[in-house]
Amino acid sequence: MRFSYKILLCTIIIMAAAFGFSGFYFVNFVFETSLEREVEQAMDESSILQFAFETAALNIPSKYNILQDGAVAQIGAQLERGGQGRERLIRFSDEDGNTLFVSHGFTEDISLLSSVGDEAIVYQVMQLGSKYYVHTAMKISVLNRSLFLETMRDITGVFTERTMGFDMYRQVTLLMLGGSCAVMLFLCFWLTRPIRLLTRATKKMAEGDYAYRAKKISGDELGKLTEDFNKMAGALEENVDKLKQEIRSREDFIGAFAHELKTPLTAIIGYADMLRSRKLDEEKHFLSANYIYTEGKRLETMSFRLLDIIVTKRGSVNLQRVAAKDLFTYVQDVFAEHAQQRLVYEVHSGEVYGEVDLLKSVLLNLVDNACKASGEGATIEISGEKQEKGYLFQVKDYGVGIPKEEQQRITEAFYMVDKSRSRSRNGAGLGLALCVEILRLHGSELCIDSEPGKGTTMSFLLPEKQEDTNEESNH
Question: What does the DSSP 8-state code read for residue 114?
């Protein structure tokens, strides 16, 4: 059952119960009040009849000192006719309960007489056929006689009014429940509309439409729930996009890795097959062996860099205080002999916190990339400067540059802007990916400023305090 129908059904049940109990209480209260009034009037009438009977009995001339039965019947007939247009039912009985006078239609039941005291008036509500009466009884003492006076007052109208009241209240209740049902049905659909919109949004998202958002139509708790749902949907969409991007990156990584393996392996297998299948002169033999050695070293370098990336993603760094000039001196020694470009160093004194070998690897990769992007004899500027927030490392070349749309992806493993140039220089697109991971462990990041045809500047700032960063990385 739908939630709106549950609300409607519960409301109707509660309203029906409330109307039923309140109607029964109200109609029954009116009935009890009217019945009490009729009983009081019946008892008052009995007292009046008692007084009238005693007065009439004392005024009847009698030769005897005791009231005769005939006189009782005569007075009873007179009192019956004195009802002032209203049917009056009375009965007079002697001390033994024998009837002396009785009106037509009076009940034959004399059990009430046993409850009569010397001065009290007793009554009972009784039903004769389709009519209801108040039956009263009292004792009269006059002229040495003890008689019983009984009256019956017709109160059928009170019971008829109660029946009509219940019938009318049932009709009114049904009409009110019908109207309330229509109003509540509208209110239920209006109140549960945010829930239906949320349900529609969840179905859309289950079908894969993560950009769908539920419409907010109220400012109450359901409106707040809609806001929270949309925030959750936004976070879910963002996570799904990240997962999709990671899957694409992983697929690109696997494809690029397979391609990078295929090229050197093809050369190695080809030249190895040439060496084993035919006899070559000394020069060709040397060239074939050199190709195998070169491609093997390329595979070795690529394997080491991949391993470094995996280790840096999972591990932590052992930070030490080190002089910045020592790092630049190491880079200068490495590139002193085989660099085809002119390396210009401008280094200021200062100390940094970091793992020496990893920082050396970052600088070597940045300088190596600058060399690959520059022509022979080009100038590459390498600088280090102490700043307020840390120590700034910078490598600047005047080479081919990097297009703006490519700058966001060049730090991905195996991604290369110019694949033919990079492979011709034994590049695999792993250097910058490794640098990013190493700098992340040091609480820094790689900044790239490049313009095609004018060159590239790559820099990173090692912050002063690395202890907090190291603790975070360990977690």
Answer: G
